[in-house]
Amino acid sequence: MRLRVNLSVVSAVLILSVSACAGSAVPSSGSASPALQGSNAIAGHSRPADTTSILKRLTQSVVIGSTVDAKNGDKGPRTISIAPCDHCGSLTKGQLVVCNFENSSGAAGQGTTIEALDPKPGSSATRFAQSNSIEGCDGDAVTSVNEVWGAGLIARKVLEFNDRGVKKRAYPGKGIVAPFSDADALPKAAFSPEYIFIGTTSGGLVSISSGFYGDGVATQVADGFAATKVKGWSTLAPSGLQYDRGLDTLYIVDGATDTIVAFSHASDLLQKDEIVVQPGGKTFDCEFPKVTCGSLVYSGSPLAAPVASTLLPNGNLIVANTQGTANTLVELTPQGQVLDTKVVDTSRTQGVYGLLAVGTNDANTVLFYTDINSNEVIELEQ
After folding, report:
1. How many CB atoms lie within 10 A of CB 349?
2. How far is CA 114 from CA 32, 74, 107, 277, in A?
């Protein structure tokens, strides 16, 4: 019998439901998993490859607003999420939720605030929550009822806030490794738990079963991702977590190996280290391969130490590089075909650490991203 094992290790990300459509192709240049060519069968469901490039259509850039906290001046926005629930606490449906990683003087890892912004130009940041227990805030996952999970890289904790920004529970503990990225997986069915997935700087992936039907236990369900610290605060570890509810698939970016991988049946990951990523990040040792396992989506160029990612409404992915040509976005299919690349900030300093796609189809998809060079949320639209 498979039992959930209590283990605390942490870091943060976000979710979108998806649909499929069709379009034109652009050849890829790196390596995709042969098992993923043609159809996305990794999750026990199939979805035809969609080669429509949304990134090519996003030609207009609009500043939404500054993320600087009005009270203590925190800045340096990292991950970005969206509030899905209307009339749930202090957040309004559609508001953007952003973590600040730096303090007012720009000291990396000293930010302690989570901000909310309306998704329209000229918005002002409103503090949703502040706590020293999320110092070095680099992740904010929003649940179906607008509760927010904040990850603190330096504090080595993940905090659960209620829908009004009041602390409910902390996930610290012996052996906690700095959380690096997190995501919320909406319940896949009625009476199902809601899962918070967390990447860590130890190379692990933690799952917390949350919501009315969850047990609130933190379990490291995967291990073996590459994780490294390069110059300054530029840590690379499993991040950019994206959950496809329709396929029950979790996508994970690892900038240390320039890989994107997919975990099938993510909501069935219940036991300690069910999946162990092998050296190089391309193969997996799976304890229950008939239930859930990992697959390589893509590796190599044009990926260059990616950290952030987002899932598009058509099922494809966009990731943001942190090395090479700074601030380059890469769009690709889950089958490993690169569709487009785009530089969104011409500064030589890497600034894009948060991505969020919103829309219901190709025609109305927009992309929000955070830029620490300007301390702003910016929207790319068609």
Report:
1. 9
2. 36, 9, 17, 32
Q: What is the dihedral of CA 133, 170, 168, 132, to 10 degrees?
A: 0
Specify the pLDDT at position 124.
96
Q: Are 68 and 74 in contact (CB under 8 A)?
A: yes
Angle (CA) 186 195 364, round 5°: 30
In the 8-state DSSP scheme, what is residue 39? B
Tokens describing residue 113? 């605030």
CA dihedral 322, 97, 77, 236 (to 10 degrees): -40
Task: Tell me how far apart the alpha carbons of residues 93 and 85 are, in angstroms, rounded to a whole number.
Answer: 5
- The pairing of strands 284-286 and 376-381 is unpaired
Q: Are strands 75-82 and 96-102 parallel, antiparallel or unpaired?
A: antiparallel
pLDDT tens-digit map of 66-78: 999 999 999 999 9
- CB–CB of 38/47 below 8 Å? no
Q: How far apart are CA 30 and CA 28, in angstroms?
A: 6
Amino acid occupying residue 371: D
Whole-angstrom distance, CA of residue 367 vs CA of residue 369: 7
CB 379 within 8 A of CB 366: yes
Instruction: Give the per-residue pLDDT at 250.
Output: 96
H helices of 211-314, in order, are none
Tokens found for residue 235: 């840590």
| Dihedral (CA of 32, 304, 157, 13) sign | negative
The full set of domains in the chain, from first to last, is 14-381 (2.120.10.30)
Of the listed ranges 164-168, 186-190, 202-206, 247-251, the least confidently predicted one is 186-190
CA distance 188 to 247: 9
246/154 Cα distance (integer angstroms):
34
